[in-house]
Amino acid sequence: MSWDFETEPEFQKELDWIEKFVREEVEPLEFVLDCHPYDVRNPKRNALVRPLQAEVKKRKLWACHLGPELGGQGYGQVKLGLMNEILGRATYAPIVFGCQAPDSGYAEILANYGTPEQKKKYLQPLLDNEIVSAFSMTEPQGGADPDRDGCDGSRREGIQPHVDRAEGNSRREHSEEPRCWHA
Fold first, then answer.
1. Which of 29, 58, 116, 172 would bridge 92 by S-S if both were Cys, CB 3.0 to 4.6 A apart?
2. pLDDT by residue for the chain (183 residues), tens digit each?
3. Which residues touch 1 (CB under 8 Å, ≥6 apart)?
4. What is the 3-state secondary structure (H, E, C) of the chain?
5. Cα–Cα dist 130/176, whole Å
6. Would you put residue 120 in left (φ > 0), alpha (ψ -120 to 50) or beta?
7. CB atoms within 10 A of CB 119
8. Predicted model pTM
9. d(Cα 66, Cα 105) in Å, to the nearest integer?
10. In degrees rounded to 5, what are phi and psi of residue 162?
11. In terms of Cα–Cα distance, which of 81, 127, 74, 98 is closest to 26?
12. Neighbour tally for 18: CB within 10 Å
């Protein structure tokens, strides 16, 4: 018995389109945008990225790690790996295709285990790229020990949201609001 390592012809057509689209439409963003790809509040970024996201959605290649009920294709790891080989070449490509980390993982968790309220408040805005997620490690001194852990998530006049920790300072200047979450 032999194993065929060829990509399905139908999916190869999609990969060819992704390759060309990323090269011609997405990679040039790095030369005209001086903001972080996750900065969903930047009007210049949104003016250029949102139309590309719409084109990806029209092509049914948006958030392919998720099932069809959430607008994805439910692709398995092999197809996702082939896509990510291309997407990993351009800073803005994961955002344009709706599969950026850590948002993709959080979307999967919320889709499978979130309450209806959590899905409404976090999942849909995450899928619509209206918000982005963040995580913060508490290493090296405290680990994730809740008895030693503490944070103060606050807004300060003229300063973007931040989380001050005994172990260091975690910033996500493009996040909507500061949060501390620990599992």
1. 29
2. 777 788 999 999 999 999 999 999 999 999 999 999 999 999 999 999 999 999 999 999 999 999 888 888 999 889 999 999 999 999 999 999 999 988 888 899 999 899 999 999 999 999 888 988 876 666 656 555 555 555 555 554 554 554 544 434 344 444 444 444 443
3. none
4. CCCCCCCCHHHHHHHHHHHHHHHHHHCCHHHHCCCCCCCCCCHHHHHHHHHHHHHHHHCCCCCCCCCHHHCCCCCCHHHHHHHHHHHCCCCCHHHHHCCCCCHHHHHHHHHHHCCHHHHHHHHHHHHCCCCCCCCCCCCCCCCCCCCCCCCEEEEECCEEEEEEECCEEEECCCCCCCCCCCC
5. 9
6. alpha
7. 17
8. 0.73
9. 10
10. -150, 165
11. 98
12. 21
Contact between 111 and 104 (Cβ < 8 Å): no
Do residues 173 and 160 make contact, with C-beta atoms less than 8 angstroms apart? yes
Tell me the two tokens of residue 143: 């680990």
Computed on alpha carbons and rounded to an integer, the radius of gyration of the chain in Å comes to 19
* Residue at 17: amino acid letter: W
Neighbours of 98 (CB within 10 A): 24
Residue 29 CB-density burial (10 A; 0-12 exposed, 13-18 middle, 19+ buried): buried
